[in-house]
Amino acid sequence: MQKIVPFLWFDGKAEEATNFYVSIFRNSKVVSLRPGPNGTVMGTEFQLEGQTFYALNGGPQYTFTPAVSLFVSCETQAEVDELWNKLSAGGAESRCGWLQDKYGLSWQIIPTALGKLMGDKDPAKAHRVVMAMLQMNKIDIAGLQRAYDQG
């Protein structure tokens, strides 16, 4: 068991959200459903890419904010595109690889290339990459590379 597990509070949609997230990530599964009143599900335990999460139907008192997000490292543009399209469906896109899914949970869909290019020892190259990223919603690796290669 993981020592630290994200605990997600939903207003009646914990099971639905669990199934949605598990359907998106390949190495994922529903571990358990915890019964609630009148045949409903009170909470779930699930894994996404080996990371355990708990979800609770806690009611309308609390909602998600972008102050906490789930950061997903992607190796390819195809992976960025797939996750971006699935997670943003019914939600909202934002700048710099951030989105909110249809349940209000914030995600960062970030290619590993971004960190490599931003971490270049040449500050001018790194700055161009940052400036390009700031203009993007979904991160475009080719666009980052073009900015890096300028000059």
Q: What does it look like?
A:
- The chain is an alpha/beta fold and 151 residues long.
- The protein has two domains: 1-60, Roll (2,3-Dihydroxybiphenyl 1,2-Dioxygenase, domain 1); 64-151, 2,3-Dihydroxybiphenyl 1,2-Dioxygenase, domain 1 (Roll).
- The protein contains five helices and eight strands.
- The protein has helices at residues 14-24, 77-88, 112-118, 123-133, 141-149; strands at residues 7-10, 28-35, 41-48, 51-57, 69-74, 92-93, 98-100, 106-111.
- The strands form two sheets. It has a four-stranded mixed β-sheet, covered by helices on one side. It has a four-stranded mixed β-sheet with strand order 5-8-7-6.
- Strand 2 (28-35) and strand 3 form a beta hairpin.
- The longest helix has 12 residues, at 77-88.
Give a brief rundown of this model.
This protein has 151 residues and is α/β, with parallel strands linked by helices. The protein contains five helices and eight strands.
What overall form do the CA principal axes indicate? elongated
The top level CATH class name of the largest domain: Alpha Beta
Strand content: 25-35%
Average the pLDDT over all residues and give the rounded result. 97
CATH architecture field of the largest domain: Roll
The computed structural class is alpha/beta
Strand order of the largest sheet: 1-4-3-2
What's the CATH topology label of the largest domain? 2,3-Dihydroxybiphenyl 1,2-Dioxygenase, domain 1
- Uncertain segments are none
Provide the descriptors you would attach to this structure in a database record.
alpha/beta, 2,3-Dihydroxybiphenyl 1,2-Dioxygenase, domain 1, four-stranded mixed β-sheet, 5 helices, 2 domains, 151 residues
